């Protein structure tokens, strides 16, 4: 897992997009692909299992603007309240854990919502929702 440049020519992510796609699969699909779940757990810790539950429950929505193609993910949390979090998978999540575990303490690479978004994209299981650019701007203004 090097710092190779991804398809966008960036390398600021500790795990490149291509490596992530090769490594990650949903809990029910890991072993047939020969994925070492111990290594994944070492990388992502407690958030990996939680992220796979979110993906299994179809809790990932990719919201894209029709004209610009810009997008953000909306992730439904696991709690009984089913809170929704806006998320940019590589850089930001609006959840408490992102700020506490990742930004402040640096203990995790990603929160469970970021991992869930990346898992769902890798597996092709996220719900794609198209909105106008104005609607996406209103959604982003809530951040």
TrEMBL record:
BP-aspect Gene Ontology terms: defense response to bacterium; double-strand break repair via homologous recombination
GO CC annotations on file: nucleus; Shu complex
Keyword RNA-binding: no
Residue span, SWIM-type domain: 73-122
Nucleotide-binding among keywords: no
One MF term in the entry's GO annotations: zinc ion binding
Record's keyword terms, sorted: Metal-binding, Zinc, Zinc-finger
PANTHER family cross-referenced by the UniProt entry: ZINC FINGER SWIM DOMAIN-CONTAINING PROTEIN 7 (PTHR28498:SF1)
Name by which UniProt lists this protein: Zinc finger, SWIM-type
Organism annotation: Cynara cardunculus var. scolymus (Globe artichoke)
Record lineage: Eukaryota, Viridiplantae, Streptophyta, Embryophyta, Tracheophyta
